[in-house]
Amino acid sequence: MARKHPDWNPDLLRKHREEIGLTLEDTGEKLREIAERHGFNIAANFQTIWGHEKGTVYPGPHYRRAYCRLYHCNEAQLGFRRALPGEDAPVESVPAPIDRNLPDQSDAVRRALSSIRGGDDVDSESLHNRVVDAWRRHTSGGSVDGPTVILVGGFAGSGKSEFAKFLGGLTGWPILDKDSLTRPLVDQLLVAMGGEAHDRSSDLYREKVRPLEYRCLMEAAWDNLDCGISVILDAPFVTEFSQPEWMQRFHNRCRSKRVSVATIWVECDPESMREYIEFRGAARDAWKMEAWEDYVSGLNLKMRPQGPHFVVDNRLGAAVALVDEARDVLSGG
């Protein structure tokens, strides 16, 4: 385990638990409450928690996110991993007097949105303000001037769906997830054309099926935008974001309809993507896991969308942790 997670310091979990006077059973109960609130898939019995604290079992992604919410720390501070630039690093001991007051809602929202960085001459502050304004209007019953479309893209397991759901929960804008919209039809179409239902790597899928999949997604988006309804699109968009012509056509059409556009690329490291893909266990990902090294070698990890765009740095799950914090504050948890 140490070889796979060389920066892991499991003793910090115990120190945080003892600092606030929790037993293993108490910790399990609180983790289960957090899991129910956030939709995490964990059992959180005391044997598992003991294994985490003793260093015999490395916590999975949902456990780590639940621990972060329980102790109001990031993964680096809890000793799960090294700190990213700008993050607070892990500490060797936990001082007793810690102010665990949660930030107010506006501050928590802006902290989560701070992971969206501008790129290619776009101002991230304008997008932050647009989302915050939509959140305030959504919670107060007001209306937003003119529709907005947000495209959230990234490689499989990057955390793009978590970020899209966060934006949707804030703004009240509908989320159009490509897989949710098209997967049943895509699976059956592949079988009808002589392929395999969960294939996402063959020429048949890439050349015959994938274009139709994205066409359905975009047509559903235009149906909403034409009615003045803002939407958030959740899909990899790897091919589309790489094509200047596609991006230019999309921006031109939005401009003609007076629709505001934000393109977001969710960046993540290969090991974190692999962990998320393993954890969700989707049949469509089987081919990636069977040939992981070949799959990763084919990814351009430095890819950025053509044209104006924003980047969310979710390496080691840092952005998703901020999203979890904001959700807790907004729900009063």
Helical proportion, percent range: 40-55%
Q: Strand content of the residues, in percent?
A: 5-15%
List the helices and strands in order: HHHHHEHEHEHHEHHEHHHEH
Q: Count of DSSP helices?
A: 15
Describe the main β-sheet briefly.
Answer: 6 strands, mixed
Distance from N terminus to C terminus (CA atoms, Å) equals 33 Å
Q: Could you walk me through the main structural features you see in this protein, from its secondary elements to its overall organization?
A:
- The chain has about 325 residues and is of the alpha/beta class.
- It is about 50% helix and about 10% strand.
- It contains 15 helices and 6 strands.
- The chain has helices at about 10-20, 25-40, 45-55, 60-70, 105-115, 125-140, 160-170, 180-190, 205-225, 240, 245-255, 270-280, 285-290, 290-295, 320-330, and strands at about 115-120, 150-155, 175, 230-235, 260-265, 310-315.
- The chain has a 6-stranded mixed β-sheet, with helices on both faces.
- Helix 5 (about 105-115) runs antiparallel to helix 15 (about 320-330), helix 6 (about 125-140) crosses helix 7 and helix 8 (about 180-190) packs antiparallel against helix 9.
- It is globular and about 60 Å long.
- Residues about 90-100 have low confidence and may be disordered.
